[in-house]
Write a structure and sequence with these properties.
It is a single chain. By secondary structure, this protein is mainly α. The protein has a single domain, classed as Winged helix-like DNA-binding domain superfamily/Winged helix DNA-binding domain (Arc Repressor Mutant, subunit A, Orthogonal Bundle), CATH 1.10.10.10. Helices cover about 55% and strands about 10% of the residues. Strands 1-2 form a two-stranded antiparallel ribbon. A two-stranded antiparallel sheet has the order 3-4. A hairpin with a 7-residue loop joins β3 and β4. α1 crosses α2 and α2 packs across α3. The longest helix has 29 residues.
Amino acid sequence: MEPVTKVFLLDNEGERFFGDGPYRLLLAVETEGSLRAAAASMGMAYTKALRLVRHAEEALGFALTQRTTGGRDGGGSRLTPRGKEFLDKYAAYREQCTQACRGIYCQVFGSQR
């Protein structure tokens, strides 16, 4: 038996808008250089990826990505400075939640592995 901690954020209406999926998607945007390529690398439809990013941006009130349209050099996406900062904070928050939950698990259940 092992604890599992899932960390996600809710908007003002109580709807989930950010969690591991959007987090991994945005990390992939940074490495792939485009939302379309990031979505493809995760086996996700581009329209779903775009919807996830837009929903998160709407809930947060700021842009996570900066998109450029195609042309001679092609289009792409990258994280905004504020987007990078948000991802760093989310990762730190998720890690602290996971560690806290592991500590509580060990207090309650002991080492039942």
